[in-house]
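Quick one:
INPUT:
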């Protein structure tokens, strides 16, 4: 499956973990996931990790990751934040990468478990200072328990952000390698090289990955038909949409939609 760049509407989020699988993506913020019930399977930088209650995963900026499986009873905390929100850890997020981004429940101290519990109960909109304070406790209890290796900070990282943001904004329009490179002020060969060297896919595959990822998010809206989703994601007809969806996700859009709507109905019944 191809990677897409998630351009988040906000740089800070502390709240409930996703209840659904989420496709392979990258973003420029840090993401932490703490499972409190059920289990999930999280793919981080090409490696699959099964997380059980009490386990915590840390996803560094620009690291491809996906939620491949989320059990129906899964619950947990998600903290998504800019790397410099607590300055003392900014260098860790930008110059290092963890050998293993998952910490098991048995390796975590009481302070970390308490931080997860408190953050799960706080409302970010009303308790932002407390949320950041407990986030600091969570980071202190996890980052110091990881082992790291240095990573090369690419000089063109800023260009990489610009490229992925531009594609995220325009993927559902008529877009070509030439039109994108012109808008970005770089050569078509430079742009093509970025995708092949950094993301290991070609330009067209990346466009389709963004379109299908957006389609999967839109399909969560019960007010949208598959035809509406198809058009909103830049596909001229359902046949092309179905073929692209099957190649990217491994099932037809109608099958995926049925699974999503079934999960929503089950959640409403349990509520």
């Amino acid at each position: 499956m191809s990677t897409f760049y998630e351009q988040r509407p906000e740089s800070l989020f502390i709240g409930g973990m996703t209840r659904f699988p989420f496709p392979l993506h990258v973003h420029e913020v840090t993401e932490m996931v703490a499972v409190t019930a059920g289990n999930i399977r999280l793919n981080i930088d090409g490696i699959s990790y099964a997380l059980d209650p009490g386990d915590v995963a840390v996803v560094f900026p620009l690291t491809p990751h996906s939620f491949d499986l989320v059990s129906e009873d899964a619950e947990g905390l998600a903290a998504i934040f800019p790397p410099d929100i607590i300055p003392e850890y900014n260098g860790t997020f930008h110059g290092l990468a963890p050998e293993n981004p998952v910490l098991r429940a048995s390796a975590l101290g009481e302070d970390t478990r308490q931080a997860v519990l408190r953050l799960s109960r706080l409302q970010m909109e009303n308790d932002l200072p407390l949320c950041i304070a407990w986030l600091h406790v969570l980071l202190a209890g996890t980052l110091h328990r990881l082992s790291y290796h240095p990573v090369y900070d690419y000089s063109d990282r800023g260009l990489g952000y610009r490229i992925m943001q531009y594609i995220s904004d325009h993927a559902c329009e008529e877009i070509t390698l030439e039109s994108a490179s012109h808008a970005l002020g770089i050569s078509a060969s430079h742009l093509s090289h970025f995708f092949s060297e950094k993301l290991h896919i070609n330009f067209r595959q990346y466009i389709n990955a963004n379109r299908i990822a957006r389609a999967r998010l839109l399909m969560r809206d019960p007010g949208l038909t598959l035809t509406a989703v198809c058009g909103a994601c830049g596909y001229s007809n359902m046949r092309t949409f179905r073929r692209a969806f099957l190649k990217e996700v491994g099932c037809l859009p109608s099958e995926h939609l049925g699974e999503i709507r079934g999960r929503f109905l089950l959640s409403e019944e349990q509520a």
